[in-house]
Amino acid sequence: MKNGLEDVIAAETQLSDVDGEAGRLIIRGVSLDQLVANSSYEGVAALLLDGLMERSVGEAQLRAWLAKARIRVFDHVRAADASLLALPPVDAMRALIARLPDGEDFDTVLNLLAAPAVFLPAVLRLQRSQKPIAPDASLPQAADILRMLTGKSPTREQSAALDAYLVTISDHGLNASTFASRVIASTQAGLTSSVLAALSALKGPLHGGAPGPVLDMLDAIGTAENAYTWLGEALDRGERLMGFGHRIYRVRDPRADALKGALKPLMASGQVNRARGELAEAVEAAALAILKARKPNRPLDVNVEFYTALLLEALGFPRKAFTGVFAIGRTVGWLAHAREQALDGRLIRPRSVYTGPLPAAA
Ligand code: ACO
């Protein structure tokens, strides 16, 4: 038995492959760097869903259907009452998604792809006592998310950066939330249930809940000069450095570089706080040096969450919403895996080893 199912193979998939030794991510036969360079969010969504639905899905068609789905699900924003809005954004978003009908058909897929993109900006606005902004069907999903968040047309660099983020995080092997999605799919509960389970797994700080704490860490460190000492003291207290380490990668997470690349046009056009960028670089360098010295037997490098934090902050998302933005991008991976599992048709039902007491002999 392996704690945490480490190295256990629990599914066969055509969707994505994570090579932790080489630091390589392949999605449906295309390497991540190629995908980020050449594909939009809608393009990668079409790629992931290809062959898994009752009809074939092309990028342009999916963009149009998704835009209509955003308008459809916007109606559900009305259900956001005071008690729902008192929840953290990711929990409020989950509560709204839970109101969508369950199903296995393509309309359910479209609703689920659109729902997080519409609900998160609406929840954030309502929590600031602002009116939610209705979707604009003429826009691609990334640009519309930013417009629904701020009420302004995003710049070209901002739309491109969010689009690159959504592509980068669209799928990533059998991570905890994707496994949760497949387990639910194997019971034939429906795709909404799969997404709800996956979202619940994602929000933990050891999975998709880390980027907010990355910014907390940068704030606490404050200056580049303070980085090495602060990080050393955090490790002395037994804390983990947020944005570093990964269960599979033994080298740099390729998604970190994809996001660093996506940040460049924003930086070059002055749309990222320069001091924040410089502090992050200093903290990354100090953390890599100190982790190498303190954990010589465990290669620890930067993971996707470190640059996620910088990118989403630069795009104007509050840190409490970062996990929700992650969910917007990852939902397509959850859905593709759920469909793949459903088509496989076999219930996931592993066994456990009982280590408790035995009944007293009669
Ligand atoms: N900081 C300091 N030490 C670390 C870190 C870290 N970020 N990550 C792992 N280690 C150390 C552990 O303390 C342990 O050391 P030890 O052997 O001396 O006790 C060793 O590395 C191995 O740790 P494990 O717990 O076996 O590693 P695991 O595979 O379970 O951890 C995880 C992966 C959970 C991501 C971990 O690296 C971590 O907690 N990172 C910080 C949180 C974070 O960034 N999460 C986002 C992950 S990316 C994503 O899911 C989208």
Automatic annotation (TrEMBL):
Family, per entry: Belongs to the citrate synthase family.
Catalytic activity field: oxaloacetate + acetyl-CoA + H2O = citrate + CoA + H(+)
Signal sequence, start to end: none
Swiss-Prot/TrEMBL keywords: Acyltransferase, Transferase
Pfam families, alphabetized: Citrate_synt
Native species: Rhizobium pisi
Species lineage: Bacteria, Pseudomonadati, Pseudomonadota, Alphaproteobacteria, Hyphomicrobiales
Active-site residue numbers: H246, E305
Gene Ontology CC terms, in alphabetical order: cytosol
Stated name of the protein: Citrate synthase
Metabolic or biological pathway: Carbohydrate metabolism; tricarboxylic acid cycle; isocitrate from oxaloacetate: step 1/2
Recorded GO MF terms: citrate synthase activity
Annotated GO biological process: carbohydrate metabolic process; tricarboxylic acid cycle
